[in-house]
Design goal:
Length: 202
C-alpha cells in the first residue's frame, strides 16, 4: 500500500507528478491538453454505454415490466458521483509502498484525481488504470441478478453502474496508448502533465 495523502483542493495537478524520472524515459505521444484527451477518449465510453443499454433492455424485456424506479436511479447516480473518491482510491492502492499518491479535487476540471509520479511495470499500470471499473461491474452484475420486482434496489444499482462503467473512459484511452506504444517489459510513469515509458533496453 502506498502513502496516500488527502490534498483537498488541487489547483495544479502536475505539481504532484514530479517524481524522479529515469534518463532512459521517453515521452509517449499523447494529446497535449486534458480537453483534447477527453475528446479523443470519448469512443472508449461507447462499449460501456452499449452494455448499460443492452442490460436494461434485456432485463426489462425478460421481465415484461418496468424494473427500475426512476427516483432510485437518480439516487444511485448521485451516490456514484460522490463515490468518485473511491474510484481514485482504487487507482492509488495499486502503487507500491514507496510511492506517494495525492488525492483531491481539481475544481476547474470538476474532477477527483489520484496523482503520483512513480514507475509501474506495464501490467501493473494497466491494472491501476482499469481497477475502478469494479465500481460499475459489481453494480451491473447485482442489477442483473436482482429480482425484477425490486424496482427500488434495481434503480439504485443501475444508477451506480452508469457512472461506474463510464467514468474510467479516459483511463481506458491511456491503456490503449500504452499498449500501442510500449512493450511488456517497460515501465510507465506520469511526470508533470505527460506520460513516459522507461525501457529496460536503453
Amino acid at each position: 500500500m502506498p502513502k496516500i495523502e488527502w490534498k483537498g483542493i488541487i489547483k495544479n495537478p502536475s505539481d504532484y507528478q514530479m517524481g524522479a524520472l529515469s534518463k532512459n524515459a521517453r515521452k509517449l505521444n499523447m494529446p497535449k491538453t486534458l480537453n483534447e484527451m477527453m475528446i479523443k477518449a470519448l469512443p472508449f465510453a461507447i462499449p460501456s454505454i452499449l452494455i448499460i443499454f443492452i442490460v436494461m433492455f434485456l432485463k426489462t424485456t425478460h421481465a415484461g415490466q418496468v424494473v427500475v424506479a426512476p427516483a432510485t436511479v437518480i439516487l444511485g447516480f448521485v451516490v456514484s458521483i460522490i463515490a468518485l473518491l473511491v474510484h481514485e482510491f482504487l487507482h492509488a492502492i495499486v502503487y507500491p509502498s514507496k510511492a506517494i499518491v495525492a488525492i483531491g479535487f481539481v475544481p476547474n476540471q470538476f474532477a477527483a484525481v489520484a496523482l503520483a509520479s512513480y514507475p509501474l511495470r506495464r501490467g501493473r499500470f494497466i491494472l491501476m488504470c482499469l481497477l475502478p471499473y469494479l465500481l460499475g461491474i459489481i453494480p451491473i452484475i447485482l442489477f442483473c441478478i436482482s429480482p425484477a420486482a425490486s424496482i427500488g434496489t434495481n434503480g439504485f444499482l443501475f444508477g451506480l453502474s452508469i457512472m461506474g462503467l463510464t467514468s474510467p473512459y479516459v483511463d481506458s484511452y491511456n491503456v490503449y496508448q500504452v499498449l500501442r506504444q510500449t512493450s511488456k517489459s517497460d515501465s510507465i510513469q506520469f511526470y508533470g502533465d505527460d506520460l513516459y515509458v522507461i525501457s529496460e533496453k536503453p
